[in-house]
């Protein structure tokens, strides 16, 4: 079996490559390197540089590498940018996916794992978000992920393609400092960025109906997330007939933004008191996964805690921003 991993040179993709090759799976990466970094990949993993929406290239890669399964991570992923450029997001994340699925079906590939997101749920009023919680995305990014799930499932049903949609909650940390996230779009790198500039970390809203007034989120270590991809990929391979699996990938535990800020201060040694800004539109008070389906159906549970996420993310940050250590 060979797995094609689109977006494999990205932050999460590189961890998925590592988990899958570490478990003995054969992989090939397709990445246009728009945000990916080739050095994140082991030297013996073939990297094809190009678009996951290039049909001719896909036909060639699927055939030359005798691909039997696809893990599709390549996508545009910034919520704010998706509001400004919805057409780009729909083209990349939905139209591009349709091209990929056409190539997959034409090549007779039978397994397809799709990177979805908790953004498909929007701002649900639920203590724990289950896979049955209604999906109501509130921005084009979340819409494209939900449309992507529909597309993958419909193609799966029509063409005997087993599909697994993984709805990631808040991804953090790194298995190795070199594999860390280089973007500053999530709360942990945003805190690091402010502290490195000797500025107070910002908390958006402290008047939410939560115990300390700040938003509560479910953080998942990227190495655990990568292991979840391996578990889903293997389940799709084991199954006799086509499967259709949709799973939350979280820890089922909430951490408030203030608790996270305290932990970041302790781990980094930069103890600058956070400042409170007004709420941001679209932030739910609480977004915590029910992780029951993954544990009951696949026997997978996250092993790494929030401290390990912040420590490993900080190591990665300091590798790219050595001034952070002396600030
Ligand atoms: N990081 C998160 O917190 C998070 C949360 C939920 C879902 N996701 C999803 O996980 C996936 C990976 O995210 P990430 O954080 O690793 O982002 P990333 O930007 O680090 O990785 C995306 C990778 O895909 C490549 N890519 C983008 N468009 C491509 C295209 N058309 N053809 C080929 N390659 C292309 C990029 O070069 C990059 O290597 C995305 O689908 C994203 O929507 C991420």
Automatic annotation (TrEMBL):
Pathway: Carbohydrate metabolism; galactose metabolism
Taxonomy, superkingdom: Bacteria
Gene3D superfamilies listed in its UniProt record: NAD(P)-binding Rossmann-like Domain, UDP-galactose 4-epimerase, domain 1
The keyword NAD belongs to this UniProt entry's keyword annotation: yes
Record keywords: Carbohydrate metabolism, Isomerase, NAD
Entry cofactors: NAD(+)
GO terms, molecular function: UDP-glucose 4-epimerase activity
EC number, UniProt record: 5.1.3.2
Catalytic activity: UDP-alpha-D-glucose = UDP-alpha-D-galactose
Domain NAD-dependent epimerase/dehydratase: 3-250
NCBIfam families named among the record's database cross-references: galE
Family: Belongs to the NAD(P)-dependent epimerase/dehydratase family.
Name of the molecule in the record: UDP-glucose 4-epimerase
Gene designation: galE
